Amino acid sequence: xxxxxxxxxxxxxxxxxxxxxxxxxxxxxxxxxxxxxxxxxxxxxxxxxxxxxxxxxxxxxxxxxxxxxxxxxxxxxxxxxxxxxxxxxxxxxxxxxxxxxxxxxxxxxxxxxxxxxxxxxxxxxxxxxxxxxxxxxxxxxxxxxxxxxxxxxxxxxxxxxxxxxxxxxxxxxxxxxxxxxxxxxxxxxxxxxxxxxxxxxxxxxxxxxxxxxxxxxxxxxxxxxxxxxxxxxxxxxxxxxxxxxxx
Amino acid sequence: xxxxxxxxxxxxxxxxxxxxxxxxxxxxxxxxxxxxxxxxxxxxxxxxxxxxxxxxxxxxxxxxxxxxxxxxxxxxxxxxxxxxxxxxxxxxxxxxxxxxxxxxxxxxxxxxxxxxxxxxxxxxxxxxxxxxxxxxxxxxxxxxxxxxxxxxxxxxxxxxxxxxxxxxxxxxxxxxxxxxxxxxxxxxxxxxxxxxxxxxxxxxxxxxxxxxxxxxxxxxxxxxxxxxxxxxxxxxxxxxxxxx
Lengths: 247, 244
What we know:
The structure holds two protein chains of two kinds. Chain A is α/β, with parallel strands linked by helices. Helices cover about 40% and strands about 15% of the residues of chain A.
């Protein structure tokens, strides 16, 4: 049967016409248990801080997880600075990563994706979503153990992942540094080389008040210590996202 | 008139002999410091200093040796990084700034695509191509920086972070060898409760301290009755104070 020219044209062309590279915002996966309101609040507040720097961040939430109550879909303050929260219908990591892809095109700067920890050990694909993973950790020994275990699981799911750690629940920079180094010491050498520090956050009264009142710390109390810490972590994230911006 | 010579790639020995002059003539010139110093199981062709005091290990690769040389250069940079502070103590005249770290510059006549891609994923790694030029009847060498394109979709590589605008309150601490460095732009004053310092006369009441999530006591605007020392997490809370 004769074929159309369009069907065979590629035989006569040296190369396929170059496709424009997809402009996908980098995504930071945050493994987070469903009831962890404080850390979900951190994610939301970090997104607000990213928006304050001029980014157009996206917070992606799998609809099956119970995060919605902790995040703020429609903050009362900040209008333009309110990050977009996308409730993505997905039942596993692979589906989540796929559904997130078109959303990343419209984000600018960074996307934050909440990932149920149970998805880290799955075999459903989507490991690219974990290529940059952020874990929250407190300085207590059992909490550092838990954070290390979480990072190990992310590393197992995504062998080349960059694993970020943000400390909270500390009272000084020195305590945060000590906790981070203890956590790094707990990690296997192969994991340790992939750990990156992403600063320290305060879980003080402002954060809890924001959680209760559904306001972002950076908007309600931008000069507070909690807001300064959030801005610092957001800056670290955004700087690294920009450093990875592809020419 | 300057013309590029379309001939065989310049030999490694010739490049090495001209290396100091070549790196000095880069658009961002490097200051050559030491040639042939012992590195890890091999000699370093050149250690130079950039404009900010960072150490730059310069490695010459002959034609077709670039991929292997890149691995060697990455290893030499990792080997040198924890030794820079010792170098500075022994030879402060070198002008190196340990905090600026160590980066690598691989110099070769041409680069395999695998070398370019691998270099793009290595923090602080740069490539420069050696060009053989003909000028007024003589042959000369020049370096041309090779732009590196980062692969799409991978985790971001790390570039040196700009210094914070204000100096940190604590002296810079270097992580133990093998441990990733802790990063923050905050100082202890940014985290500590302002109540630790006495407020100036007439200043508004301090903000309540944090005890890792537990509601803390709060000084309202009204004079408070004398009370004993507070225990963490057991303070009082009021929604009527100045801070609300």
